[in-house]
């Protein structure tokens, strides 16, 4: 049974940082492309970033380039998202998703002064 559990969200001031984690179980994490997706209130899901398995190459949505960094630790079955220079418009529920469509419940990020 695939399980993805996110953590690390919270309330942060503009310009601040957070590090999200996603612990995976129930599948061979190291062989799956993984991504972060966010959904703000009243809006549809937005793809944020993805990371490949073989070479660890990464991709980012334009609105987070230079501010967010995705990474993975296959030994720990964990996906990360380091978020710096946060803006109020980054406020959303962030969740991780696997290549087969499985996703976690998400962790809330609120950027506000």
Describe it.
This protein has 113 residues and is an all-beta fold. Helix content is 0%, strand content 50%. A six-stranded mixed β-sheet has the order 2-10-9-4-5-6, with no helix packed on it. Strands 1-3-8-7 form a four-stranded antiparallel β-sheet, with no helix packed on it. The mean pLDDT is 96.
Percent in strands: over 45%
On the 0 to 100 scale, the average pLDDT is 96
The low-confidence parts are: none
**Spatial shape:** globular
- Kindly, what is the distance between the CA atoms of the first and last residues, rounded to a whole number of angstroms? 40 Å
Strand order of the largest sheet: 2-10-9-4-5-6
Query: What's the number of extended β-strand segments?
Result: 10
Number of helical regions: 0
């Amino acid at each position: 049974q695939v399980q993805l559990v996110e953590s690390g969200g919270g309330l942060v001031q503009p310009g601040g940082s957070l590090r999200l984690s996603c612990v995976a179980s129930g599948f061979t994490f190291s062989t799956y492309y993984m991504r972060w997706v966010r959904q703000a209130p009243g809006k549809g899901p937005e793809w944020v970033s993805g990371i490949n398995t073989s070479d660890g190459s990464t991709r980012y949505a334009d609105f987070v380039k230079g501010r967010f960094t995705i990474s993975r630790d296959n030994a720990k079955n964990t996906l990360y998202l380091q978020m710096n220079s946060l803006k109020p418009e980054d406020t959303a529920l962030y969740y991780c998703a696997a290549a087969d469509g499985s996703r976690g419940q998400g962790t809330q990020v609120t950027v506000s002064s």
